[in-house]
Amino acid sequence: MKAARFSQFGGPEVLEIVDLPDPHPGQGQVRIAVRAAGVNPSDWKKRAGLMDPELPQTLGYEAAGIVDELGPGVTDVAVGDPVFGLSDAGAAQAELAVLSHYAPVPPSLDFAHAAALPAALETAWRALDQLGVTAGHTLLVNGASGSVGGAAVQLAVARGARVIGTASPANHDYLRSLGAEPVAYGDGLTARVRALAPAGVDLALDAAGSGILPELIDLAGAADHVITVADFTGAQKHGVRFSRGDDGRALHSLTAIGPLIESGRFSVPVAQTFPLADIAAAHRVSEHAHPRGKLILLVG
Q1: β strands within 109-233, DSSP E
Q2: pLDDT tens per residue across span 25-47
Q3: Which end of the chain has fewer CB atoms within 10 angstroms, the N or the C?
């Protein structure tokens, strides 16, 4: 099969489309003929040598496609079913991918929008669970117009929370459409949030990693009222929890999200699509632009 890989660290030019052996699913897994795969900031960070030291590396943790092989014990889907999900192997940007966690593609979505779901959905759901966001809470989301931030806004609104979201003014109408009250980030953020919530907020989620954890702690009243999914160094410095996949993933979100999607109350927008062969272009956009929505590789 054709798959994205790099054998040295560097810029997007080190990315290659290579022939690799076809993977096969293990216990409880399925293999899909990939139709679309998500691109995440972690991809270019891996390629640049900022994360894992091993070489060579394949890429991709989320995809959507058609089931073409079942692992032992799989009874909830059949060959030919459209599914989306997460690949623990980190090799979903390929013609074939093994999904360790999956769910049926919601009827209203195409493969590109289904592939946009898993990482942002699971990350946002997990962070809200760890914060304990419920009806009646006021939640501040920093970076609310990004994929994870936008997902968190919609999920929190669905739980009955009041949501205040930071974004550039150009994205304020978008945040309002998600159900959030927008504020501009940058100098004076604390005062702008307090103009909407004079007593501060109950909880805060940092989805942007823009160095404002002290302000979020001040607004939420304590470090244990704040979680970041984007600022590992800041979390250590300020005593804030950094939410990561190995501290209990919200995998049930993949199957639970369907009704919200079909009722029009949840979506992850697709900012741009690229053929698999143009993965270097996708990395350039991911690394240097700030797309509102997911970047998706189309396969097959």
Answers
A1: 138-142, 162-166, 181-183, 203-206, 226-228
A2: 999 999 999 999 999 988 999 99
A3: C
Res. 291: pLDDT tops 90: no
List the Cα angle 294/143/13 in 5-degree steps.
Answer: 45
Q: 194-208, pLDDT tens digit by residue?
A: 999 999 999 999 999
Q: Is the dihedral of CA 47, 63, 177, 161 positive or negative?
A: negative
Residues 6+ apart with CB under 8 A from 17: 2, 3, 4, 5, 276, 277, 279
Q: Do the domain assignments include residue 189?
A: yes
Token readout for 284 is 């350039």
- CA distances, 33 to each of 16, 114, 176, 278 (Å): 20, 14, 37, 19
Give the span between the Cα atoms of 145 and 68, in whole angstroms: 35
Cα(279)–Cα(286) distance, integer angstroms? 10
Which domain covers residue 219, as residue numbers? 123-247
111 and 130 part of one domain = no
CA 238/CA 212 separation, integer angstroms? 10
pLDDT tens digits along 171-197: 999 999 999 999 999 999 999 999 999
pLDDT in tens, 251-265: 999 999 999 999 999
